[in-house]
Amino acid sequence: MPGVMERIKQFARSPQGRRTIDQARRTASDPRRRAQAQRLLGKLRTRR
Where is region (Disordered) located (predicted)? Predict the structure, then answer.
């Protein structure tokens, strides 16, 4: 049975994985989305 990392690698190489990675890259390059993610991370950090 493949380990977790091997399963992640397999997914990243699949067509669906490639689409997901491309979508994440486009989202990360958008300044509005980047700011939104920073605010969310800030909220998560302060809860601890």
Answer: 1-48
